[in-house]
Automatic annotation (TrEMBL):
GO biological process: vacuolar proton-transporting V-type ATPase complex assembly
Biased composition (Basic and acidic residues): 73-86, 149-160
Name of the protein: V-type ATPase assembly factor pkr1
Region Disordered, annotated ranges: 73-160
Organism expressing this protein natively: Pestalotiopsis fici (strain W106-1 / CGMCC3.15140)
Annotated transmembrane regions: 21-40, 46-66
Key words of the record: Membrane, Transmembrane, Transmembrane helix
Classification via Pfam families: Pkr1 (PF08636)
Gene Ontology, cellular component aspect: endoplasmic reticulum membrane
InterPro entries recorded: Pkr1 (IPR013945)
Tagged with keyword Transmembrane: yes
Domain of life where this protein originates: Eukaryota
Native organism taxonomy: Eukaryota, Fungi, Dikarya, Ascomycota, Pezizomycotina
Length: 160
């Protein structure tokens, strides 16, 4: 029993489905169905019938998915084995001689580049003004603090 729990714990960290995890899932869903049936008998509530159908649908979907995953993994393993067999066959068929590519002595042809006539050249308008460097009393050339100080000085001048 201890090995089952150890295998189940390790299967959590293993990608895909493992037989131990599927067994634990099936036992858990079977126990849930028994509990829902017992509650149905105790209360005669339709809710437990509905929950039982939902639980059964989920149980079936999980098992269907695990089956489809196994089929796909088997197909993938078969494809991989075929590719390896083909690679081995190609390696056996190839010669051990080295072949060097033949280089032609003619110059490669280069297609002429044509510019699009739809592009319009735009001449710059107006004057570009250079920003003045910060005054010598400031620590840095241009910073946010310097800009805020300039704004606050301008506001003080307006108030006067």
């Amino acid at each position: 029993m201890a090995t089952f729990f150890e295998e189940m714990w390790n299967s959590i960290f293993t990608p895909g489905t493992t037989p131990t995890l599927l067994l634990a899932t099936n036992v858990t869903f079977a126990a849930l169905q028994v509990v829902l049936f017992g509650l149905l008998l105790a209360t005669y509530s339709i809710h437990f019938v509905i929950l039982s159908f939902i639980s059964g649908g989920l149980w079936g979907a999980i098992n269907w998915f695990a089956t489809e995953l196994k089929k796909e993994q088997a197909k993938e393993a078969e494809r991989k084995a075929q590719e390896e067999a083909m690679a081995r066959q190609n390696a056996d068929d190839s010669d051990d001689t080295e072949v060097e590519p033949v280089q032609s002595k003619s110059k490669p042809s280069i297609a002429p580049v044509t510019a699009s006539k739809e592009v319009e050249v735009i001449e710059p308008q107006g004057e570009l003004k250079q920003r003045l460097d910060a005054a010598p009393g400031y620590k840095s050339g241009v910073s946010t603090e310097d800009e805020w100080e300039k704004v606050s000085e301008n506001e003080m001048d307006k108030d006067k």
